[in-house]
């Protein structure tokens, strides 16, 4: 069965907590979109405002108090006992501050190929991640429709999965699917028959059958799930389309 993953674009910790509560006990994994206002225009928790970097360092005074509490092991992610998390790092500093982000206790971490810098350096970074970390966290890489697939292919052997973004306008919910993504998925599926392929943006009742036929195995949906009166029913319907 296809995995359906609710995507949360949290404006605050309370927003994060409230939306996780809506799918708690319904799905095993929730995606949390982290946006810094630099790599993408939108800003989400844990940032209080557009992230500012000083010599590449994480500026703690721009971070939500709950995030700081999690980093200091004084608290955990909301409902962490019941739900696993994957973090979609739509941030400029995902590589530099990987050790900070993993302290959130995510089951999966998603980088964006457009944000990681030199791709050979990124491959070296992936291969250099501690074995214990790689055994406990799945690493994925997202790619926008406009980015040539040729940039991604050399990195696939170092990844656990790939996430195809359904539109170049990332960091927002309710964006329509760019149909050129179907060919990207088909190409990936043909070249890597066993590769888990996620799709984020544009997942709906209309697009799911086409995405699955192209080779997608994970469907990440935000507005299609949270903008409905029947969240549980919608998730089940998406799984079975």
TrEMBL record:
Q: What is this protein called?
A: Ribulose-phosphate 3-epimerase
Keywords, comma-separated and alphabetical? Isomerase, Metal-binding
Q: Which GO terms describe its molecular function?
A: metal ion binding; racemase and epimerase activity, acting on carbohydrates and derivatives
InterPro entries, per database record: Aldolase_TIM, Ribul_P_3_epim-like, RibuloseP-bd_barrel
Q: Which GO terms describe its biological process?
A: carbohydrate metabolic process
């Amino acid at each position: 069965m296809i995995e359906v993953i609710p995507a949360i674009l949290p404006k605050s910790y309370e927003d994060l907590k409230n939306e996780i509560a809506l799918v708690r006990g319904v799905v095993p994994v929730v995606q949390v979109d982290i946006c810094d206002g630099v790599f993408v225009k939108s800003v989400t928790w844990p940032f209080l405002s557009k992230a500012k970097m000083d010599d590449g360092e994480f500026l703690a005074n721009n971070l939500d108090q709950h995030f700081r509490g999690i980093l200091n092991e004084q608290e955990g992610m909301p409902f962490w006992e019941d739900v696993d998390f994957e973090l979609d790092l739509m941030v400029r500093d995902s590589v530099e501050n990987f050790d900070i982000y993993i302290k959130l206790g995510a089951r999966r971490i998603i980088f964006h190929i457009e944000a990681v810098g030199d791709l050979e350096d990124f491959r070296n970074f992936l291969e250099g991640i501690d074995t214990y970390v790689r055994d406990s966290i799945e690493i994925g890489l997202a790619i926008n429709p406009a980015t040539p697939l040729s940039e991604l292919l050399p990195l696939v052997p170092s990844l656990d999965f790939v996430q195809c973004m359904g539109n170049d306008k990332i960091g927002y919910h309710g964006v329509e699917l760019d149909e050129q993504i179907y060919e990207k998925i088909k190409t990936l599926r043909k070249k890597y028959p066993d590769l888990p392929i996620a799709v984020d943006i544009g997942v709906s009742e209309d697009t799911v059958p086409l995405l699955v036929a192209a080779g997608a195995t994970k469907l990440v949906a935000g507005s299609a799930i949270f903008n409905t009166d029947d969240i549980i029913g919608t998730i089940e319907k998406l799984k079975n389309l």
